[in-house]
Amino acid sequence: MKVLVATEKPFAAAAVNGIREIVEGAGHELALLEKYTEKEQLLAAVADADALIVRSDKVTADVVAAAKQLKIVVRAGAGYDNLDLPSCTERGIVAMNTPGQNSNAVAELALGLMIYMSRNQFTPGTGCELSGKTIGIQGFGNIGQLVAKKAVGLGMNVLILAPQPAEKHQGWNTVPTIEELYSRCNFVSVNIPATPETKGMIGYDLLSKMPKGGCLINTARKEIICEEGLDKALAERADLKYATDIAPVAYAELKEKYAKQIFATPKKQGAETAEANINAGLAAASQIVNYFATGCTKFQVNK
Question: ∠ at Cα 179 (103, 133), nearest 5°?
């Protein structure tokens, strides 16, 4: 089988070497398409691929159509909204992600953004400490759980949004509604995917409920934020803050108006650590090899 790694932003060399060792060690062929600049290059490369590994590269309907032999595509990371799942399903292509491999990197970034904002973006002036503050976790998956554990180590109080109490929330203090989460927490860490149900769900109504000095931390997706509502909330309350790893569409305008209240990383940094880069790549390769060997679909996302 031919396994194609197609990455506009390549994996680290160590990750590529590890992927090669896993793929070729199982008797398959590895092909690389790195730093491509035109979609046509991707369309040509997938034409004879049996498996595909991508990072944030978009696997759209035309990519799926061009991949006549494709049997499996793996997104090396947790989010998979860059994969056209209906197209994959229609063709019988298994689509997977690699949950948990980037989680620690994203969780550490979330805490770093909290410190950065609580210290006035490292500009002169009196900031505040995280110890003793309350953080709300919206989305208690791999990342949310790590954020919670690390926050406890910093002396923070943790509240988990749990509309329907589940076993995994045992030992944590929970709140039943999102409104209560925002009204009780100094910080809220958002760790949810962008879905039809979550897009635009966080806006003026929720942000305006936060306590004085409240700060929203978003390391998930920009689509879950209602930018119009964010703008209105920041305008009405100079004490509110927003830090994100995914710049809003109108970031330049928002930054000009609310310089001390808002910050976005220049380019998505959540998974940009050497460790996460390697972990996600190796996991993707292993999942493909296991699929071809045993039919394992443990991490399939288009069931």
Answer: 60
The letter for the amino acid at 57 is D
β-sheet bridge partners, residue 188: 136, 216
CA atoms within 13 A on the CB side of 13: 0
Task: Please state, in angstroms and rounded to a whole number, the distance separating the CA atoms of residues 81 and 56.
Answer: 9
Cα–Cα distance for residue pair 83/91, rounded to 1 Å: 13
* Whole-angstrom distance, CA of residue 38 vs CA of residue 244: 29
Rounded mean pLDDT for each run of 10 residues along the chain, 303 residues in total: 96 95 98 97 98 96 98 93 96 96 95 98 96 97 95 97 72 94 98 92 98 97 96 98 97 97 94 91 98 97 90
Q: Give the Cα separation of 202 and 223 in Å (integer).
A: 9
What are the structural domains of the chain? 2-101+272-294 (3.40.50.720), 103-264 (3.40.50.720)
Q: Spell out the residues 6+ positions from residue 27 whose beta carbon is closer than 8 angstroms to its own.
A: none
The DSSP code for 300 is: B
Residue type, 163: P
End-to-end CA distance of the chain: give it in Å, rounded: 23
| Cα distances (Å, whole numbers) of residue 282 to 3, 12, 75, 77 | 13, 11, 12, 11
